[in-house]
Write a structure and sequence with these properties.
- The chain is of the alpha+beta class.
- The protein has 23 helices and 27 strands.
- The radius of gyration is 31 Å and the shape is globular.
Length: 717
């Protein structure tokens, strides 16, 4: 009895003592180490750099692979700097006779552009069985039999690993992989337009081997890619294409050892998920140490990483904000990053508030708990977030969402003055300030043109300064843009031949179709909102909701009239947005990305001049004219640029949104001691129910114990 009471009193005395919170989801060794904790919601499909083109995949492979270039972590506007390359290559322009041209030569004089890339020496691959050799120098795992693969289920089941230096040949090998039709690289078509011999190389591979056979790409020559020596190679492009350097900052152009291609191509590997889509091999600061997409993904420091230093310069405010406190330090600053699968928003959010995730996005469900807007529209953290020293980072994304008019449609499209008035009227009536407030929790900036904030050529700023306003839709009032009134929009409707929304010729109301790929209950409110906007002008809007495949088919055939669409920048150049309205890229006629089929001869001619120019005042002047044409013709209602909101704890350092760079994990810093202290403070154990239960148990057993003892004493007598 005394022993039981002592145990109960011991439990009652517990009040959170100990070094870790009771509900900690991470192991003690990881929690106390230099490890970053985050989450993911969707399993990455492709970790092969020739195939991957999704943000959730880049979150992992961009930390593992090193292409020639990268974006400076701190500088804005976005600036390319060397990564695997010694320097940013400057193309040598060549005319049709083979003579060199000056860097500012007109595009129509340029037959070829030669990019010579010198890579850094001593870049070594992560430990990998594909590179393991025996004592005689032969590769251990390049001739595996089915018997040898018995019991092998993961890459870790191979006991030996090896490494070697990355060379120019590896970069060439990866470019050849992009052209391999078996891999279906998403950039093969655009690279085929520019890299000399790219398409021919791909066609030659079709007959080079049977299905599943390894093709040693080193034995096949691509005319436009040449190895100059161990650390130098040259890529020849057709014509002038300055945007090629941006592609060199993507993992598509990271080195790939031929040994890995052979290793993964062996029979029996793919059925065990032992392939490049599951197990990357790179020279970067991290390697994929654990791939369990149903539970967690773990990146750990690459022991063979050649080294890199934290930037020593940035923008003027970076020093004041502490972004240069780690200047010159060796990267990466953390040893490991653990990403846990979280399919549901609420558990992910709660674990962030408990301190078990270092950073978090802000979902619509948790937005009001985290963020409030001041009288001037500025975003601030709530008192609850401030009490936990949680920080907020915001950035206008290099993306645009727009409402498109199908310019091939006779009612809403074309270049007639009447249809142009109709599009302008609708552009005024559709109030995207209201849309951002209602559906995005204020996370967006109204667009006045096709170029997001921060892209060269854009005159717009995140604070809606007067310089970049769209005069077709807005007036300037007290130095701020003000949307034109509905009366002005209705006057344009009358000029278009639809007074009060009815045809001046037939008296019938104007009926337009809106194509939507959102058919679920969550989209109902947005669709009703769009219908209401047009109803202000007397226009009857018919919502035609369908699945995404059917929606895409309507765009390809040009059978729709209005639709919402968007575009995210591949690289920070105006060409990457303005080409969406270039006539020869029309969706219906040319199967291009011009989803609204806009085709203006003056705009097309200006685009041809602008697209291959270096950034300069002359290029800016051309872009200004192009944007004026677009605003006047109104093929899009310009919509909005999304604004990203992310939260992070004060123990998580070096947070500066970089919407172009994907390889920023190496710059991040954590303070495990502060994190653990806060986790204990925020997660005290709740033991009173257990203690109460045990106390009741003791109390309930006392009568039985007394009866037992009475019985024993009577028996003894």
């Amino acid at each position: 009895m005394v022993g039981l009471l002592f145990a109960v009193l011991s439990l009652l005395s517990l009040s959170g003592c100990g070094e870790r919170a009771w509900n900690a989801p991470h192991s003690a060794s990881e929690a106390n180490s230099n490890t970053l904790f985050s989450s993911f919601s969707e399993r990455p499909k492709h970790l092969d750099p020739a195939r991957s083109y999704a943000a959730n995949e880049y979150a992992f492979i961009a930390q593992i692979y090193e292409p020639p270039l990268q974006y400076h972590f701190l500088k804005r506007p976005y600036q390319l700097v060397p990564l695997a390359a010694e320097q940013v290559p400057v193309p040598q322009l060549i005319d049709r006779a083979g003579n060199p041209l000056s860097a500012d030569a007109p595009a129509d004089q340029v037959a070829f552009s030669d990019y010579e890339i010198r890579i850094k020496p001593d870049m070594r691959y992560q430990p990998h069985p594909a590179l393991a050799k025996d004592a005689d120098g032969a590769y251990r795992y390049h001739r595996l039999t089915e018997e040898q693969l018995e019991g092998v289920n993961t890459l870790a089941d191979f006991p030996e690993t090896g490494t070697r230096e990355a060379t120019a040949e590896d970069f060439i090998y990866q470019i050849k992989r992009l052209a391999n039709p078996r891999l279906h690289s998403p950039i093969a078509s655009i690279m085929g337009e520019y890299i000399v011999g790219f398409n021919e190389f791909g066609r030659a591979l079709v007959d080079a081997g049977g299905n599943g056979d390894f093709i040693d790409l080193r034995q096949h020559r691509m005319a436009g890619v040449t190895q100059l020596d161990r650390y130098r190679f040259k890529v020849r492009l057709r014509g002038k294409y300055p945007q090629f350097v941006y592609w060199l900052a993507m993992t598509f152009f990271a080195p790939m050892p031929w040994e890995a291609d052979l290793f993964y191509s062996q029979p029996g590997m793919d059925k065990r998920n032992i392939n490049l889509n599951w197990y990357p091999i790179g020279t970067g600061p991290f390697m994929l140490a654990e791939n369990n997409p149903n539970l967690r993904m773990v990146l750990s420091r690459n022991p063979n990483f050649h080294g890199e230093a934290y930037p020593t310069e940035g923008e003027p405010e970076d020093g004041e904000n502490g972004m240069l406190d780690d200047a010159g330090k060796a990267l990466p600053l953390i040893n490991k990053a653990v990403y846990s699968l979280e399919k549901e928003v609420i558990p992910r959010w709660n674990k962030f508030l408990q301190g078990y995730y270092d950073t978090s996005g802000v979902s619509s469900d948790s937005f009001d708990q985290a963020v409030r807007f001041g009288t001037g529209g500025e975003a601030n953290l709530t008192q609850e977030m401030q009490e936990r020293n949680i920080q907020l980072a915001t950035a206008v994304e290099t993306s645009i969402f727009y409402l498109g008019f199908n310019m091939a449609d006779p009612v809403i499209g074309g270049d007639s003055e009447e249809n142009r008035y109709l599009r302008q009227a609708i552009s005024i009536a559709v109030n995207f300030e209201e849309y951002i407030s209602i559906f995005l929790n204020g996370r967006g900036v109204v667009a006045h043109g096709p170029l997001p904030v921060g892209i060269f050529g854009s005159r717009q700023s995140s604070d809606q300064s007067p310089e970049g306003i769209n005069p077709v839709v807005y007036d300037l009032e007290n130095g701020r843009p003000r949307r034109k009134s509905l009366q002005e929009a209705r006057a344009l409707m009358a000029k278009a031949g639809y007074p009060n929304g009815k045809s001046a010729n037939t008296g019938r109301p104007l009926v337009l179709n809106y194509e939507s790929a959102s058919a679920g209950p969550d989209s109902k409110a947005q669709l009703n909102w769009i219908r209401k906007q047009l109803n202000q002008l007397g226009i009857q809007l018919v919502i035609r909701a369908t699945d995404y495949n059917r929606f895409q088919e309507k765009l390809r055939k040009g059978t729709g009239q209005l639709f919402m669409f968007g575009w995210n920048a591949d690289y920070p150049d105006p060409e990457n947005f303005l080409f969406l309205l270039y006539g020869p890229n029309g969706k219906v006629e040319h199967a291009g990305e011009n989803a609204v089929n806009y085709d203006n001869p003056e705009f097309n001619a200006l685009f041809d001049r602008m697209k291959n120019m270096e950034n300069s005042p002359e290029r800016q002047q051309i872009i200004d004219r192009m944007v004026d044409i677009l605003r006047h013709d109104a093929p899009w209602i310009w919509g909005f640029y999304p604004k990203s909101f992310s939260l992070y704890h004060d123990w998580y350092g070096n947070v500066k949104p970089n919407l172009m760079a994907n390889n920023t994990l190496k710059y991040k810093r954590v303070d495990p001691e502060t994190r653990n202290a806060n986790q204990q403070a925020w997660n005290p154990p709740i033991v009173w129910p257990l203690n109460l239960l045990l106390l009741l148990l003791v109390v309930s057993t006392v009568p039985a114990v007394l009866v037992y003892r009475r019985h024993e004493r009577s028996a003894a007598r």
